[in-house]
Amino acid sequence: MAGSKTTGLRMAALACVGLLAVSCGSDSGGSGSPGGTNAAPALEGRGEITMVTGKDTSNNMQRLTDEWNAQHPNEKVRIVELPESADAQRQQLVQNAQVKSDSYTILNLDVVWTAEFAANRWVVELPRDEFDLENFLKPAVDTAEYRGRLYAVPVYSDGGLLYYRKDLLAKAGVQPPKTWDELTAACQKVKALPEAAAIGCYTGQFEKFEGLTVNFAEAVNSAGGTIVDESGKPTVDTPQARAGLDKLVRGFQSGVIPQKAITFKEEDGRRSFQAGELVFMRQWPYQWALANKTDGSSQVAGKFDVAPLPSDGAGPGVSSLGGHNFAISAFARNKATALDFIKYFTNDVSQRSNLLATSQAPTRTKLYDDPELGKQFPYLPILKQSILSAKPRPKAVRYGDVTTAIQEAAYAALTGAKDSGTALRELQVKLQDLLK
Amino acid sequence: MTVLPRRGRAAGEAGRLAALLLSPTFVVLGLVVGYPLVAALRESLYQTGQTVDAEGFVVQGERFVGLDNYAAMFSGPAAARFWNAFGNTTFFTVVTVAAEVVIGVAMALVMHQALRWRGIVRAGILVPWAIPTAVSAILWQWIFQADGVANAIIGSQVLWTTEGWQAKAAVMIADIWKTAPFIGLLVLAGLQIIPRDVYEAARVDGAGPVRQFFSITLPLVRPVLVVAVLFRVLDTLRMFDLPFVLIGNRKESVETLTMLAWDEASNLRFGPAAAYATVLFGYVAVVALVFVKLLGADVIGEARERIRKDRARKEEPLVRPGVVHA
């Protein structure tokens, strides 16, 4: 029997190898030498580099890179595409940093990763005076900073918009709503129309993922609350924050938000909106072009418009800030080339071509007021307003834990597992621990 | 070493030769099994990067914390999450494997009996097994979404991917769909080596189909079935991709131990992640051992039996195959 016993053990061991690989990959994480000093290192070295990014769906990144390569034959840039999901991208970037590999040079970072990458010294500080940052959207530049230092340059920005069915609103004789109360009232009037009796009022992104953090933050900020204050201390256990969360909780209870919206990510919402099931939807601008497609995929093409997010009283609603920044890996060679390429990629011409090709929001303020671009992207002025008044999500070294805590509290409140007061009290305690 | 040098010089030389011939295997096993195990065990005793200095930089270097990572698992704020994941893992394993055995055996009987279109029937039953888990998870996500096929069939709106029993059910349905064919396939192989004359004898003795199944088919197919179940149990204890893709990360109702370890690792807490992985390893090892001891799962039994008989004809075995100190 000795044979079969050890055989069993061996199989168990094999079964676990895949799992343990997760942890043994981290060996070099702690045992290496303390990484560098605090002074911003000089960005030196010229030669071939890589740019590591999510999917280049429009192929415009490749086009811009080809142009650069033609002009800089000795400093060629190669694009490295990572998986589509943000989590998977972050994981690969982190793993690359853990082994201190020089294979990634320029990193395309989500705005919420800046603190983690900077605090771990995975990306280098960038010289502020090399960039004309005053021409960038201020909130976008803010997302590239950690403790007052610049670690990245904003390439894409993003802000939430309120998509609404202009055809139905016109028929019901109501204006696009500015507040949440106006929104619910407008929806009731639309529902009184015979053709829209069964229509849902509103949705955002409420599945337990990053989108829920975004939507929760918007609800809290639009109600006059904050998640963290100026000094980074958590402030979610306040009447304002509770009012914001309660707005969504009541929305689910009263049916203003359809029950199934608790399972919605961005694309589920789009499917529902495009099928004509909703009057209002909180959504990113990238869906404008998709929902306007006249190839039969959307039943609402030409029938909707966008407005700023609704508020809970005075002032406009507050969006959460999205977007991506370019940073330079601390372990890369040829950092001087990387710096030049980032400048090239964020200049006026590149940003314009990016907007035209991808409809992703640019980070240069000027482009939003360009009449020619405005003709093609009529939502640009509203998007500018959304981004300029947007609040960043908390800057945290352990952002993954912070956003998880927020999602758990919001999800528990929205599904009725906890009342919003309890959920926020517990969240406050957790955040105090995570952000101290 | 695996040599039993009791039979004089000739035996000792043969033993050394055997050891020499086997040593590449040991080296490979040591690299791919031994090293990760030891590295994970070591990692689970350390913590890294959990503090931030005055300038906002993460303090580098690792700190030996002894068994703290393990202690935190069983008591303290993380304990509830651990026990929940442990419970989910066990629950999924017991329920899905039980269901898979019943369905898999039924499938095997059908495949065995099918006379016409035998190839098509077998291929059809094996399709779910051939689809990568992540892909089938996305497939089931479509089925289980709010306006999906599942809700259309039952005629009410169940939000399958939200927290609660429905999420557990969704995961188990998808898992059973995917892996019952695996058991079916192995059992079919077992069925095919049962000689027909046994059944004929039973029929002559007047045994009905039910009696035949329980008195002939099941006992004779049991060695194969037990091994199939062992494979499935070990597999299900490590379940990760299906609940992760189908329901999502950090959903209490379906979080398994592997997901927990992954989540810790992705939040850069490698010490606790390694501790979770080690505990899971221990759990899997114990279950495997119990299977082997109680149910006599004999993974390479036939090969051993054959060798043993060969050897018995000459002399006592010099080397016991399968004795490997991994």
TrEMBL record, chain A:
Residues 1-21 form the signal peptide. It comes from the Bacteria. Keywords: Signal, Transport. InterPro entries: Bact_solute-bd_prot1 (IPR050490), SBP (IPR006059). Belongs to the bacterial solute-binding protein 1 family. This is Maltose/maltodextrin ABC transporter, substrate binding periplasmic protein MalE.
From TrEMBL, chain B:
InterPro entries: MetI-like, MetI-like_sf, Sugar_ABC_transporter. Pfam families: BPD_transp_1. Keywords: Membrane, Transmembrane, Transmembrane helix, Transport. The chain crosses the membrane at residues 17-38, 91-111, 123-143, 169-191, 212-234, 273-296. Its main location: membrane. Coiled coil: none annotated. SUPFAM superfamilies: MetI-like (SSF161098). It is a multi-pass membrane protein. Residues 86-291 form the ABC transmembrane type-1 domain. Belongs to the binding-protein-dependent transport system permease family. This is Binding-protein-dependent transport systems inner membrane component.
